[in-house]
Structure formats: structure tokens, C-alpha cells
């Protein structure tokens, strides 16, 4: 692969939140070789004149579910899940998401399929099977189901594994790490889709949470927790959890604890709006719709609390059941945050969450050449990143064009 030179553009500095003029960018193989205020001497490079368009880093979704099934679907066919995942990954990349952290469902095989080029999609960080207590958010048995959960039966893609007590949660975490999980997902409270638990239920004891964190830390990885109530957030921070997913019911005290500990918040606002609009037709029961309305109302407020507290806020969507709504997150967050804050969240902060700061989410020497060419200024018009990539003239991941209409 020869060198590629981009010129005549506005370069989006996602750290500073501003557009820089007069820059040129040279790509060599998978990475950015040079960023210059003046002309770059590269006589053998293929040159792309962007005609004043914006060149920005690819965006990062830190909470997605690429093998999530439709509500009420009884099938756990791995081949069917995998076929659906392949198309979801391709479409996510075509929306400009060059990296995604799957928060439960995708496994090492999905990640390897992308890395080997068998699937076209974002770079993946996978969580495997989430870990849930009996009766927790991940326990999908009804109150009439007297069966015992078993790892040997029915644990299909996207399904949580039930573990209780310090010994069992240690075993579950160790096994998910053995299976190739990049990070460990734990359910620490009830949720909208919980079968038998309420939103405000505090799930897992402190001893269990600390054991999970210990297992992850000793394997050089970390815990992310599905968490809604402020009290659950505080317990997770005390236990050493690294990222809080959702976090809609955060309060000022929980925000202060997160900021002091350096705990990240990954809000996922799109899924609530989509569920309120389409939930009944997708099989959501009235009680789940009521829970969704409750947490959606608190969603924007959670961003305001986190901002005042100084919490680092990453970018997530949770759009497993409605994957094509992924880019709606930009516009929903714009009700509270500035475009610069949102783009910083979806690049720089999210790169920190997946532990690739300086390598993705930025356009600088030695970073991966994950870049988007946008037909306009996203700092002025975030809708340019909405939809299905209609306003992206080019999408590059690791130096390879996956879309090029220049």
C-alpha cells in the first residue's frame, strides 16, 4: 500500500475542539506518518484534495451489542447471530464508527473476524458474556421458571452467565478472560429490560464486586458495570470499577466520587428514545416501558451532573435492538452538551476507555489512520454525523478506505 496525502481541508482537533486550517496529513500503511502546517514532501503519495471538507478522527462507540436479539426472539443459533453481527458491523463502520466496545455478546471470534478481514467493521473490544447474580438484570428466567441456570445449556451469544458468591464470580470472570474478553461486564443493578428486578435493586455484595475487580486487575483488564441508581454507582466506585454504564440516576455525591476516583461514565441515551417510540411493537411490556420513561427523563440530567462534577464522559449508544439508530446519540446529547464536548467524548475520552489513548480518536503522528472526511463542519452542524453516513465522503480505518467518494 502506497502513501496517501490529504490536503486542502479543515483538520478537526478533537482535544481542543477547534478546526485547524492549512494542515496536510500523510498516511503510511496503517498509521499517520506526518501532520504538517505546511506542504508535505511526498512525491510518491496518492494525493487527495478535500476541497475544504473536514478531516476528523473516526468515532468510537463504547457501549454496543452487535449480537443482540430482537425482544422475545427465542433463538440462540450462533450462525444466525453471527450473520446478523456481520451486517451490523459493516453498517456501523459506514456510519463512521471505526472502533466499538461491545458491552456483552460479541466474543473473541467476532473480534478475530474483523481483524482478519472476514468481517468489514470497526475495531472491536469484546466483553463476552456479562456476569449477573441470580435474579439480577442478566437473569432472564421468569418468576414461573424453576430451572437452574447452567453454563452448559442455553448460554447463547448475548446471554449473561449467572454467578453467586465470591468463588463463583471469580470463576466466571476467569473463564470470560480465558475465552478472550477484553474487559468484564457485570450487572450491578436492575435495568429497563430486567425480567424480575427493579431499576433500584443493588446487585452483588461488596465482597463480590471487589472480587470481580481483583480478578480483572490481576489479568490487566477492568470491570464495566451496568448501573443505574446513585447508590449502586457509589458501591461500584468504592469497589474499584473502572466504567459505569448508563448511570442515569447519578447524584452529586456519586458524581464527586467518580471524579475523584477517575471512574468513567458511559451514558447511552439513544436506546431510551428508541424504546419509547418503538418499544411496544418490539415486544416491550408495559412495566418495562414505564421503567424506560423513568430513566429517559433522568438521562439528560445525568450529563449535567457529571459535567459539574468533572467526570470523564465517554460515548455509548446501547443500540443492540435498533442498530441503525446509533448516530442519533449525537443529536440527543446536543440538548445538553456542545458539539465540541460531544466530539471530544466520542474520540479522546472514548479512546481512553478502551485504553488506546494517542492511538485512536486523534489525528497525530503514530496514531492509527482512522479518519473521516465530512462534508461540512461538525462543530457547527452535528447532523453531518447522523443517519447512515450520508455526509461522509470518505471513511478510512487503519489506512484503508472503506468508503471513498472523493
Write up this protein.
The protein has helices at 78-94, 108-115, 165-178, 206-218, 230-239, 252-261, 270-278, 286-309, 328-333, 339-353, and strands spanning 4-7, 10-13, 18-21, 24-28, 31-36, 46-49, 54-57, 59-64, 97-102, 123-125, 131-132, 161-162, 184-187, 223-229, 243-249, 264-266, 371-374, 392-397, 400-404. It has 406 residues and is of the alpha/beta class. It has two domains: 4-58 and 362-404, Urease, subunit C, domain 1; 59-326, Metal-dependent hydrolases (TIM Barrel), CATH 3.20.20. The protein has a six-stranded mixed sheet with strand order 3-2-7-17-18-19, with no helix packed on it.
How would the blueprint of this fold be written?
Elements: E1 4-7, E2 10-13, E3 18-21, E4 24-28, E5 31-36, E6 46-49, E7 54-57, E8 59-64, H1 78-94, E9 97-102, H2 108-115, E10 123-125, E11 131-132, E12 161-162, H3 165-178, E13 184-187, H4 206-218, E14 223-229, H5 230-239, E15 243-249, H6 252-261, E16 264-266, H7 270-278, H8 286-309, H9 328-333, H10 339-353, E17 371-374, E18 392-397, E19 400-404
Parallel strand pairs: 1-6, 2-7, 8-9, 9-10, 11-12, 13-14, 14-15, 15-16
Antiparallel strand pairs: 1-4, 2-3, 4-5, 7-17, 17-18, 18-19
Helix pairs in contact: 3-4, 5-6, 6-8, 7-8
